[in-house]
Structure formats: structure tokens, C-alpha cells
Automatic annotation (TrEMBL):
<dbReference type="InterPro" id="IPR020471">
    <property type="entry name" value="AKR"/>
</dbReference>
<dbReference type="InterPro" id="IPR018170">
    <property type="entry name" value="Aldo/ket_reductase_CS"/>
</dbReference>
<dbReference type="InterPro" id="IPR023210">
    <property type="entry name" value="NADP_OxRdtase_dom"/>
</dbReference>
<feature type="binding site">
    <location>
        <position position="108"/>
    </location>
    <ligand>
        <name>substrate</name>
    </ligand>
</feature>
<feature type="site" description="Lowers pKa of active site Tyr">
    <location>
        <position position="75"/>
    </location>
</feature>
<dbReference type="Pfam" id="PF00248">
    <property type="entry name" value="Aldo_ket_red"/>
</dbReference>
<dbReference type="InterPro" id="IPR036812">
    <property type="entry name" value="NAD(P)_OxRdtase_dom_sf"/>
</dbReference>
<dbReference type="GO" id="GO:0016616">
    <property type="term" value="F:oxidoreductase activity, acting on the CH-OH group of donors, NAD or NADP as acceptor"/>
</dbReference>
<comment type="similarity">
    <text>Belongs to the aldo/keto reductase family.</text>
</comment>
<keyword id="KW-0560">Oxidoreductase</keyword>
<feature type="active site" description="Proton donor">
    <location>
        <position position="50"/>
    </location>
</feature>
<feature type="domain" description="NADP-dependent oxidoreductase">
    <location>
        <begin position="21"/>
        <end position="257"/>
    </location>
</feature>
<keyword id="KW-0521">NADP</keyword>
<protein>
    <submittedName>
        <fullName>Aldo/keto reductase</fullName>
    </submittedName>
</protein>
Length: 271
């Protein structure tokens, strides 16, 4: 089994999971989740916007694992933000996932002027025991400062884009200071950096693929990591990262790769 971390409310969350953002491959998501669970993965990260919560539910049914063994995250989309709208969106997500309780519910983006009301809805969902933990996604310091001014529950998780090419140590430091667990998506940069000569050289040193090196780098920053793939062998490779450790000097070198390469919007552009 993969290692886990304890969130600020005592809930245990796996450190390594499967992201299922796959807009052109939703027909393959069920199979990908089945393969991931077969490989030992116990964290599945979906969202209402991905339109594949039903496929995740189907995979869970096929796998037949005890409910408590699999950690399920989903998110409320921008169009559904607001207090009542979020509560309705959450009910819809639970229905598609065929669950009574989700393990982690996130605000997908700090968009618009409804995010405070959205967080209030998440706090109600949490208080009612319908989500074991609540958090945010794509929040940087200004958005978190705004939220924490009024929140009665500190977010358990902040999910942000995270790779050596999108490495902002001040965001990690802020989250840790506030006892918010960082989680990183797009650790593989959608393959854009797989041929970076610096990365290739380090991967050869460790006898691993460049993708495995990227996943391991993220884990060694104590960031929950959710690489995405719908390819069986790639899924297995992405999870085969616990038998080596990147040396400190190589971690430090990878920390210098930052060039603000992103696959999603930069939260610093969101007021």
C-alpha cells in the first residue's frame, strides 16, 4: 500500500493517486480506474467538471473493494458556486458517484464573487458528515487569506498545479504554516518536459523514466500527487516510485527547473 498523510482533522489520505481529468478519453476512465486500483492505488481524484463521476463509480463497483479502502475526491465547478447551488451540485456528484459520503470535497477554482458562500456550503456539508474533509483547489495566498478571514473550518487540502517547472515554494510554505496539506496535479506536465535533457540525465542515473522521476520529486516534497493516465503500463509506472529516493543534491537541481510551464490557468491571474 502507498504511504498516507494525516490531514488537519485526523483523516488519513493516500499520498499517491490517480487523476482522471481526461476530456478526450472519458470512455476509457472506468478502465483506467480499474487498472489503478489493481496496481494498489487507493486515491481517485475526479470532479463534476470532468463529467466522469459515473465512470469512477462503475470502476469502484467492478473492483469490489471495501468503501473505506478507497479515498474519493470530487470538486464543485465554477458555474455551480454559491451556497444553494453548491449544495445542489454536491448532491448531484454524490448521486453520480453512488456514495453517501465523499472523502474530500474541493472548490475547483477561486473564480467569481461567490467563493465565500461556496465555502460556507462546504462547511455545512462537512458539519453534516457528508464529506470527511473539505478543501480548495488552485488557491494561492490571496485567495486563502480571504477564505481564512471568515472560515470556521480550515481547508484540509489545497490542490494546485505542481511540478519542478511550476514550483512555488512560498505557496507550499504558506499552506504548511496554516496546516493545510498541499496536493499537486499535473506532475507530468502532460508530457511537455519528458525530453528535457536535464530530466533525462537524472532519470538515467536512477534507472527510472522521466515520469517516474517527476512523481517521486513531488512525493519527496510531501505533496500528495495525482498523475493522470489512461494507459495501463503508464499507470503501473507512475505508481512504481517507492523503491528509490532522489538524492538531496538532485532534488535541489530539479527545484531550479522552474519556468512557469503550466497546463492550467495561473491562479495569480485570478483577482
Amino acid at each position: 500500500m502507498f504511504p498516507s498523510v494525516t490531514l488537519n482533522n485526523g483523516v488519513e489520505m493516500p499520498c499517491l493517486g490517480l487523476g482522471v481529468y481526461a476530456p478526450n478519453h472519458n470512455s476509457e476512465v472506468q478502465q483506467a480506474v480499474e487498472w489503478a486500483l489493481e496496481a494498489g492505488c487507493r486515491l481517485i481524484d475526479t470532479a463534476a467538471a470532468y463529467k466522469n463521476e459515473r465512470e469512477v463509480a462503475d470502476a469502484l463497483q467492478v473492483a469490489g473493494l471495501p468503501r473505506h479502502e478507497v479515498f474519493i475526491t470530487t470538486k464543485v465547478w465554477n458555474d455551480d458556486q454559491g451556497y444553494d447551488q453548491t449544495l445542489r451540485a454536491f448532491d448531484q456528484s454524490l448521486g453520480k458517484l453512488r456514495l453517501d459520503v465523499v472523502d474530500l470535497y474541493l472548490i475547483h477554482w477561486p473564480e467569481g464573487n461567490k467563493r465565500r458562500e461556496t465555502w460556507r456550503a462546504l462547511e455545512k456539508i462537512y458539519a453534516d458528515g457528508r464529506a470527511r474533509a473539505i478543501g480548495v483547489s488552485n488557491y494561492y495566498q490571496p485567495h486563502l487569506n480571504e477564505l481564512l478571514e471568515e472560515a470556521t473550518v480550515t481547508p484540509a487540502v489545497n490542490q494546485v498545479e505542481f511540478s519542478p517547472y511550476c514550483y512555488l515554494p512560498d505557496v507550499l510554505a504558506y499552506c504548511r504554516d496554516k496546516n493545510i496539506q498541499p496536493e499537486g496535479y499535473a506532475p507530468l506536465v502532460r508530457g511537455e518536459k519528458q525530453n528535457d535533457p536535464r530530466l533525462v540525465a537524472l532519470a538515467e542515473k536512477y534507472g527510472k523514466t522521466t515520469y517516474q522521476l517527476l512523481v517521486r520529486w513531488s512525493l519527496q516534497h510531501t505533496v500528495i500527487t495525482i498523475p493522470k493516465s489512461v494507459n495501463r503500463e503508464r499507470i503501473r509506472e507512475n505508481f512504481d516510485v517507492l523503491d528509490f529516493t532522489i538524492a538531496e543534491e538532485d532534488m535541489n537541481e530539479m527545484n531550479t527547473f522552474y519556468d512557469n510551464t503550466r497546463i492550467a490557468t495561473d491562479p495569480r491571474d485570478i483577482p
